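Notes to self after the call with IL:
- keep both proteins in one doc
- input above output, always
- annotate only the second one for now

Protein 1:
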Amino acid sequence: MFNTGRYFCLLLVAFALTLLFWGPLFFGYGFIGGDLYPYFFPQKVFYADCLRAGELPLWNDLTGFGYPILGESQTGAAYPFHVVLYRLLAVNTAYNVQHLLHYLICFVATALFALRVGNSGRGAMLTGLVFTFGWFPPRSCLEWAILTGCWLPVAMYCVESFLQTRLWRYSISLSIALGLQLLAGHYHLAFITQLMVASYATWRLWAEHSQQVQVHPGTEQGRVSRGALALILAGIAGVCLAGVQLVPSWELKQRSSRVVAGSDYDPAYGHMPPLYVTQLIAPWCWYSPQAIGEDNLVRTLAELVAPWQLFGPNHELDEAIRQARLAALETGTNKVEAHVYCGIVPLLLAAFAVIRWARHRRSSNNSQANASVLNGTTGYWLMVGTVALIYATGWLLPIGKHLPGFSFFRGPGRYGIVTTFAIALLAGQMLSQLQRCAWPMTARGIVIGAIFASTTGDLWMVSRMVTYTAIVSKPAISFREDSPVRKLLADEKELPRLVSPGPNVGTLLGVSCVPWYLGIAPAEYVDSQFAMPDSPKPLPSGRPTPASVPYLEWLSQAGVTHVLNFEPLDEQGWGVELLWKGVDPFLNRIWGRMEPIHLYRFKQREAGGDAVSYPGRARIGANGVSVSNRPEIPRGRGTRKVVVEQAPKPDEPLILTELAYPGWTVEKNGIPTESRQIGQFRAVDAPAKGDIFVWRYRPLSVIIGAIVSLFTAFLLAAVAHVRFWHTGLTDRFLRWAWSAADGRVPGSEHRA
């Protein structure tokens, strides 16, 4: 029965905890650090710009030489929350709202699942606290962590609710939860969720079948079989619901850096060194209070209720992890990917729950132990939590690389989310048992209050010790419109492409930028024959940075038109002119610099000797070709217009320095024509003076994916409608279907 008061209480506690952990974000503050500005904000700024221009973008032409947005997926272009929030709100505000909203979803869903499996109200709240604020806050530098991870408890709640009630609404909700998780964009956590759902549903159905056999020997297995089939169909529907993103992702996967050998991809990166597992029981050996950049009342109270924090070491945690080499893999990792801490008190409670369960099993016979389907949850969570923790160390990767899915994703430390979920549930289960003890009410209240206070303070402190982000009152992204560099580049007649310090940051200015940084990159981006040479090193004593011919030749071939640099350049050697020098209120905040930065533009000159020509975005031979940068070209980057204004030499193709990728078509003077690939770029043969070429991105993969998603959404809506409004009809149909499946002729029992 729906308990309005209980759900309101859960939401209130979720809001209070989210306010405690992320209070400044409610008031316009913002994150800085980690992958936020090199990766997530460049995606979101481009995405928001396109939405406000009335377009749902399919191709991002700003990062490197372009990539398919739905294929790379972490923009979450089809995620409903993104579509609404980034269309209506400023980028930093939308980012904060997303972050906070998904913490609320995660806490409430986790607590509801704990209630479903028999925990008390306070036990459920402890479960929500440990899981939501144990695993996710240190990962605040990874937007996908909370956006994708929050759907794990939602999916688990739907599974358990369906198995207890067999109501269709929960199987349909499971499809929606799995679909939304995939649309959020991070497939690794979605894959882990699917493994958990499959594992948990299998165990629960087996336990249900065992109970039926023991209580009613000879009973038919129809109920269990129908439940399994319903969950399988729900899982398939969830995957199909995200087809609009999965089909383009599959297309990119076939030609990505993860299937073509490249030095940037290592499946073992992000593992948890075995010695670092001791963070669970001895955090004072690893976490340093010196890493906390804030000193306020909350910190003082946290240290008071979790006093172990006063004894932490004074070392750099990443370096300590790198030195923990005993039985560890010979590959890289970091403190965020390897994090799995969930509190001293919750771990003790979980341990007591396991001990109690083990003693109960030894002292009870099988029929008593299986009197309830849910009695075995302790054993199940002990098993899956332990297996996940072992996998997080990377020890099982030699097995995983031969299994579908496991070999594609890197970051085995992320399987710690399962361990945290298991510990949180066991801790909540033990607290529920403590509530039932025959203690005086006052003593019980004090103990439970101390557990919550200690755990909250503990997790709050650790979230500040293990992180790559900081919260600032004036986030850099809010100064984007004030950037003089952005204004200068926007006024350029030709389409700019910038080379700047740090990958992707230049795209925040609204221009194409190299070098690039992507989660799943097209294979050309890691091909050694196309690799960007090392940039010239600055000279000491403030002397201008000298030019490097191989580096300049690469920039010329890549269509780079501008250079943004920390140090001054040798203008004659580079062939550049200084456009601007100063402190940019936007870029300098991102880089944390007070020193001036320098913006240069390449001069046009003929190739010869050691000289290098700079034709820009499109070229015929060494000569530049006009590429439209005017408002009539849609901002969705799915269109590119090139005008040949000078008579080219015979047999020289027109090369557009943008990635050749399936789905791009080209018209010559309004008539479809053939294009080909030269290196990693698009090209057409035999251009003539006055020709106008228009490239358009119309990928078949997106069309197929959209059809699959829309058909699945329509099917789920139709099933929900018929089931709700025509219950008798669906019941008769199902009885007929199950009878046919069992080999019986409907109605034969009446004729007999």
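Protein 2 (the one to annotate):
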Amino acid sequence: MAERSTAAVDVADNSGDDPLTAKAGKATADGVAEADDTAKKNAQEAGGSKDDTQPSSASELHSGHKLARRYRLEECVTRLDGFSSWRAVDEKLRRAVGVHVLPAAHARARSVLAAARSSALLGDPRFVQVLDAVEENDLVYVVHEWLPDATELTALLAAGPMEAHDAYQLVSQVSQAMAAAHREGLAHLRLTPGAVLRSSTGQYRIRGLAVNAALRGISAERPQRTDTEAIGALLYAALTQRWPYDTDAHGLSGLPKGVGLIPPDQVRAGVHRGLSEIAMRALVNDGATASRLEPPCTTPDELAKAVAAMPRIRPPEPIFTPPPDYQRTTYQQGTYGRPAAHGVAAAPQRVQPPPAPLESRTGKVLKWAVSALLIAALGLGSWQIADKLLSNGNPGGDDPKNTQTANSDNGSGGSGKDKPAAPVPLTVKDVKEFAPDGSFQNADGARNSIDGDPSTYWRTKYYRDGPELAPQISKGVGLIYDLGSERNVSSASIGMRYGKDHTTITLYAADSMTPSGTVDGMKTIATGTTTDKSMKLTAKEPVKTRFVVLWITAMPYSPPDPPSSKGYKQGITDVKFTG
């Protein structure tokens, strides 16, 4: 599959599902070798020729082999049921990838190719992307991303139950992603803790969409319900560190036999009640009872909506721990302005005496000289004022046109109409991504730019060319904000994910949330360039509009930030408008 020249997907995946064990490896290798010997014999009898540079079957693959003279196999991570999964290197793009390989004669080879190609068409960054799906030299192989910095949910759960906020993020992100997949007719059917990865920024990525099930020949009559129950099991495990069935699985202990499926808040103390109910609503098909008469969730979309309807669970407040050499001051100890404790008198403070008065003869002369000068100055000022009034033909000074009122501006020292109005914060009612060319960056993350949480953000894809964006992507990317009604927009403060050289942002006034055409026909509010992670844009004159476009035309080169790879990119963490 050809990749676009301007944008890459977001980093790579940690490949297969199950760790390779000696016992499983030996059993499956023997079976594969026998099948491959039969295939080789049939090929020889048919007089066919082979490319000596390629392995004759999947069982002959080993570290160092190259597929398509491009993908060099490094480490086998799974060998099971006639197929193998590898960590490999794409020597053309110099990046790590994952590869699933199976013989072209394998009974499931056609379905694996079809599943991989369907998954690749989805193009959703919340899923580990399929990069290539090829049949070549009697082999079928599927190449996908490899995420070296991501952590499997299996490893996270081995460390203990999740905090409520982390579990909320897990079920929210995974259910939304699977709802989007099912809208395109794609199911996972093998959504286990090993299929979910968490990046260092807290974003969850799902690997093996459709492909993992095809490799194992798994199907389901009601795929939406199957995936919903799997998400419920993941949430249950996150809250309790127990698998919600009576068998051990994925490194977790199952529930005691005979007790049935009990709510998570009855398994472990302190479990969030709302999340416990969500887990039971998703697992209702397996015998769970939805508490409070809430209906069961039978599709990922229903589950995502149920999670969204919950009160938002915020992350725990950070705990400040002072360093060892931290010294409290008297003010911090609460004794500021109080007498010393236990009747101990405070040390007397030396008071400097006032300067001696000018009682000498010289001092008296100096005082009289200063007084005389002040009297002369006052007299001169009065004479000048009187002369000015006489020159204007108003000796009486009673012309109201020339009368000045000292308190005309209530003591502000100037005219009231000249005093600038204090800036007023403007409320944002809605936000969405603005993509005139239809190439969206991260449409589902748009609201992260106004949620008030600096740890969340809307991000762009990463690009190989920059900082200025190429014409192939409309020379820019951005967001459009709805202020609810027409307001005078005078400035905006913008927080960004990445600094360095450089970011250029322009604000435009649009006529709707779905304006036709590009920003070229819109009125400019303000523009600016920065190398920092924040920017203040101020208009020369306030612009009256309801809809504001934030348009990025240059982005800094930034290091890898999973799930985003290194390249020219930017993220918007927080936007506030004033008028």
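Annotation: The domain at 7-41+53-145 is CATH 3.30.200.20 (Phosphorylase Kinase; domain 1). The chain has three domains: 7-41+53-145, 151-308, 425-578.
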